[in-house]
Sequence to fold (228 residues):
Amino acid sequence: KNQVEQSPQSLIILEGKNCTLQCNYTVSPFSNLRWYKQDTGRGPVSLTIMTFSENTKSNGRYTATLDADTKQSSLHITASQLSDSASYICVARGNYGGSQGNLIFGKGTKLSVKP
Amino acid sequence: DGGITQSPKYLFRKEGQNVTLSCEQNLNHDAMYWYRQDPGQGLRLIYYSQIVNDFQKGDIAEGYSVSREKKESFPLTVTSAQKNPTAFYLCASSIRGAYNEQFFGPGTRLTVL
Fold:
């Protein structure tokens, strides 16, 4: 069964600290993996996208990694800010046909950054 | 100012009533999507449309209906047949093709009273 599992479910950190969010996927065949940031009551916004051949990709203070062999991805946030408080959603895309793109969404990690 | 808009932001409905959620985009995207988001769950696909006058059921289409009469618009109707309609509804659009990024609207929170 195609699945995306994220951990932890929630996380509280102090402003200025770093953190790492985890994503394990069992989507096969695999096409790409995207991390979204979703502020409370808003739509998700894409942070990074990686294909199976990419190991790491950065977007400012956000760095995503991908290990296609172990089917694991992580999102590292450096020097956290209060505005980083949000849910972070991992989305894997399968490559098994279908015009809607076969997106499998994780349940998200809710990050709270405290002053 | 390009983007995807949803209205209203909050919507209240009595049991047994149909209600229509609006989704408009001016990104010139061919494909549009509707998702449902519940607490502690991942987004689930309700309906999607790749071109005007064509749409397909997603994973949880029962109790919902859509239309795609214009490229810019993809309204979602939540019918009285939907047993548990209280949720956060997200509309998205993308360039046509299965592997392009989906851009999301701000969402509509529907509450059934």
The first strand of chain B starts at residue 4 and ends at 7. The mean pLDDT of chain B is 92. The radius of gyration of chain B is 13 Å. DSSP finds no helices and eleven strands in chain B.
